[in-house]
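Quick one: co-fold with iron/sulfur cluster.
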Amino acid sequence: MLEWAVVVILAAVLLAWAYRLRRRPENAWMPRELRRATLAYAEQLFKAPSRVMLTAKVDRTYRDRSGILILVELKTRRLDRPYLSDVIELSAQRVAIMRQTGEPVAMHGYVVVQSRPGHRTSHRVALLTEDEVDGLIVRWEAIVGGHAQPRRSGALRLCRGCGFAGNCANVNS
Ligand code: SF4
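Sure, here it is.
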């Protein structure tokens, strides 16, 4: 009799667990600090003149209760992790928004990775400063102008899709 009671309780627990999983709310991925924030911009392009025109399209930007904007970038990829390229992308978005609108943007953002259907995880990342983004623009100009060599990429698959591959000594030497 006792065994049956245990089996029934276990079955009930498993059913409740499965029900909770099915009912996982749409925004379960959302970091706590964004749950009370409002959506400020979605799929919007920002442009800011600098040495070159800095153009960045944001996925989503939320405004927290103190008025600070927080950037979110959505990615669909197999590995559930953020990359340095995500940090650079979000940092460029931050600078473009600040320079175009004058609004304050947080020094951190979130990379939300969808690694399988219906499953998203948010990763908090620290962003680059304005000076660091400007430094990357200067370096990009030098590489495009042939005055500097790019550093070897750690991931060869990135070289396959790179527009500089034809002139890059790292892949042609
Ligand atoms: S081809 Fe050269 S510039 Fe392009 S990703 Fe590879 S190492 Fe970098």
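If it helps, Residues 63 and 69 are 4 Å apart (CA to CA).
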